[in-house]
TrEMBL record:
Organism name: Paenibacillus rhizosphaerae
GO MF term (any one): ABC-type transporter activity
Official protein name in the record: Thiol reductant ABC exporter subunit CydC
Protein's UniProt keywords contain Cell membrane: no
Keywords for this protein: ATP-binding, Membrane, Nucleotide-binding, Transmembrane, Transmembrane helix
InterPro entries documented for this protein: AAA+_ATPase, ABC1_TM_dom, ABC1_TM_sf, ABC_CydC/D, ABC_transporter-like_ATP-bd, P-loop_NTPase, Type_1_exporter
Membrane protein topology class: Multi-pass membrane protein
Membrane-spanning intervals of the chain: 20-42, 48-68, 129-150, 156-179, 248-267
Domain ABC transporter: 337-566
Length: 576
């Protein structure tokens, strides 16, 4: 099916290990059948007191087959598991590479816990596709056909009985298991997804749940989800055990059938009695090799569902988000940006976030965008970073359409500070050195001083998501990271909103000095320090209502002038 295309591609890339595993599995299977067949024949021969050399040959053959079976089984396990782990590694890498360009839009469609369950749980479920679905039937059929040909040389009736038993093992028993597993597996996946989602949200919102006294209720809810998942998994396990029990029943049924038929053929003179034990032992062994077929449909259904969920996570527009990489931009020069009649509307929203938006940023220019919350300012930066795609209109960087650029090239030439910056668990030094550039401790301390963090230590521990940092410290640390990159396009979204007035002015001064020859786009609510901007864009409801320099907008006494007067009044009242 189409959902398994990425898995098939990953399997093809591991074809060498897969071929070795198939060879090892076939040798192990046929050696096992031969081992027990020779053992049965040896037992029968001892009754007739054969020559000593016959016993020596048969005993040596039994030892050799036992050794061969052990070695080939080890090789089979080695290559099958190595192929499986390599396939999973390729799937994770491929899936994550497709997922990254869709962020953050995909986070608005999927709850983070459900997305985590898909990235981890569903990818892990695909390990069964090769081990339990694709690989066993091929090896079992090869071993079975060889065994049937071997038994047919003694009796076509016994060979026909083996074929009948194999049809029951490969079709009837798996069909019964599949009918019982279909609904159970759907409930297991549903409960697993719910539990993963609720656990993730509980961890994210632990503080708020504790403050508002809802933690106990959430814990009870998690326990209910966990109990439901355990109950459904138990039902699924019982169903699989039923399938395996039916497989054992079929094995003994066929073995007794072979024993009875062989006895009849011996009495009828069409089969030598010395071959009775050999044929019975061969029958039992070959059907033991077929045991994985009983649970194959359940694993196949689970793998297909997991692949389908992964495919659904990556929508069709993922291909359009990734560019042809036919164009690239220089990282050592400031760039120009041209936005022409861009409209963007979030899925499910009744009005567009941007409507026929047009703006030009000359290379080396400084532009500020102001306006109330929800006016589309942050959306504009996400479009420039190719985190989202325009509904209509064009964006050009250095006169190249953004659709023709690789998003990684855009990120490489840009210093970005978004409203929410992520910090990893580690030291302050590790969180500063996120890019590939090398920096000495002196350079790090210098840039921290520019960001007004002169008294921190580079070995200071930073918790996950910067939990031990204040909002102001997070913003200054994010600015310090951007300053270290020394790129020539700055996209800043409320970089100083959590700083006090004095600290903000000092940080902006250092920022303007470093970006003096660069192209800079600053989104802000505060209107302080905008006198140095080449142009100020005032937005409301996704449209430009005013544009001009600080002096021009103040002289017009329009929307921007009123916002500035309100800010001055608030600053005066606060005594700053």
């Amino acid at each position: 099916m189409s959902e398994l295309a990425m898995l098939s591609k990953a399997m093809f890339q591991e074809r060498k290990d897969i071929i070795f595993s198939i060879i090892g599995g076939f040798i192990a299977g046929i050696a096992g059948v031969a081992l027990f067949s020779v053992s049965g024949y040896l037992i029968s021969q001892t009754v007739f007191a054969p020559p000593l050399y016959t016993l020596i040959i048969l005993t040596s053959l039994v030892k050799f087959l036992g050794f061969l079976r052990s070695v080939s089984r080890y090789g089979e396990r080695l290559y099958t598991h190595r192929a499986t782990f390599s396939i999973l590694s390729r799937l994770r890498t491929s899936f994550f590479a497709k997922l990254v360009p869709l962020t953050p839009g995909i986070l608005n469609k999927n709850r983070s816990g459900d997305l985590l369950a898909r990235i981890v749980g569903d990818v892990e479920s695909l390990q069964h596709y090769f081990l339990r679905v694709a690989y066993p039937p091929l090896v079992v059929m090869m071993v079975f056909l060889a065994t049937v040909l071997f038994t047919a040389s003694y009796s076509f009736w016994i060979a026909g009985l083996l074929v009948l038993g194999m049809l029951m093992t490969s079709l009837v028993v798996p069909g019964i298991v599949l009918l019982g597993q279909r609904k159970i597996h759907e409930r297991v996946r549903e409960q697993r997804s719910k539990l993963s989602t609720e656990i993730t949200e509980t961890l994210y919102g632990f503080r708020d749940l504790k403050i508002y006294g809802q933690l106990a209720q959430r814990e009870e809810q998690l326990q209910r989800y966990s109990a439901s998942l355990a109950a459904e998994q138990q039902r699924a396990a019982v169903q699989l055990l039923r399938g395996q029990s039916m497989q054992v029943f079929v094995t003994f049924f066929v073995a007794w059938g072979v024993l009875t038929l062989s006895a009849y053929l011996i009495l009828d003179g069409r089969l030598a009695g010395v071959f009775l034990a050999m044929l019975v032992m061969a029958t039992q062994t070959v059907f033991e090799e077929a045991a994985p077929l009983a649970v194959l449909p359940a694993y196949k259904q689970d793998s297909e569902h997991a692949a389908n969920r992964l495919t659904e996570t990556i929508p069709s527009q993922a291909a359009t988000l990734r560019s042809s990489k036919s164009e690239s931009l220089p990282t050592d020069l400031p760039v120009s940006i041209e936005i022409s009649n861009v409209t963007f509307q979030y899925e499910g929203e009744w009005r567009p976030a941007l409507l026929n938006f047009s703006l030009q940023l000359a290379a080396g220019s400084k532009t500020a965008i102001v306006g109330p919350s929800g006016s589309g300012k942050s959306t504009l930066i996400e479009l420039l970073l190719k985190l989202r795609t325009t509904t209509s209109g064009n964006i050009r960087i250095n006169k190249v359409l953004i659709n023709e650029l690789d998003e990684e090239n855009i990120w490489e030439l840009t210093n970005v500070v978004l409203q929410q910056s992520h910090f990893f668990k580690g030291t302050l030094r590790e969180n500063l050195l996120e890019n590939a550039d090398e920096h000495s401790d002196e350079e790090l301390m210098e840039v921290l001083a520019k960001a007004q963090l002169p008294n921190v230590l580079l070995n200071q521990v930073v918790y996950e998501k910067g939990e031990n940092l204040s909002d102001g410290e997070k913003q200054r640390l994010a600015l310090a990271r951007a300053m270290l990159r020394k790129r020539h396009l700055w996209l800043l979204d409320e970089p100083t909103s959590s700083l006090d007035y004095v600290t903000e002015q000092r940080v902006l001064k250092q920022l303007y000095e470093q970006a003096s020859g660069d192209t800079l786009l600053l989104i802000c609510h505060r209107l302080t320090g905008l006198e140095k901007m080449d142009q100020i864009v005032v937005m409301e409801q996704g449209e430009i209502v005013e544009i001009g320099s600080f002096k021009e907008l103040m002289e017009q006494k329009g929307y921007f002038y009123k916002l500035k007067q309100i800010e001055l009044q608030m600053i005066g009242e606060s005594g700053v």
